[in-house]
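Reviewers of the previous submission asked for a worked example of the structure-prediction workflow described in the proposal, so we include one complete record here. The input consisted solely of the amino acid sequence. No template or homolog information was supplied to the procedure at any stage.
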Amino acid sequence: MRFLKEILLLTLFAVLSFAAVGQSVEAVGRLDRDTIKMGEHLHFELNMKAPEGFEVFWPDWGDTLSKKVEIISKSDIQQQPLDARGNVWMKQNIIVTSFDTGVNIIPSVELEFSPKGDSTIFTATSAALSFYVQPVAVDTTAALNL
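From that input alone, the workflow returned the following structure tokens.
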């Protein structure tokens, strides 16, 4: 009977701690606009809110976010001071472009986090974002200058 109570108590503790973590962690991606011309730069900002004392494992970006979305540059991860509720805000600015006309997708980003000193890893996921790439108009009547 005592063993059953301990199991029940541990399960309840695990569920409540996961619920508490889930309420205070947030991953949000933003674009500075929804339409660009082919090859133009677009600013993608990724933000994460986590309680103080949590380790956050940021993605190790390569040179693309997807097949059609290339990374031009990325900032260091910036951390804001604690807010009134004891949360830390982190953000990274990423400049991207695309040479494929039409709708392009920046996939959702998974940010992993863990309470310091704990091996349990949780995940916060941003929503996927879309933007439109306009084709560049070409004047086919103009003479070629070689």
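The first strand starts at residue 26 and ends at 31. We consider this example representative of the routine output the project will generate in years two and three.
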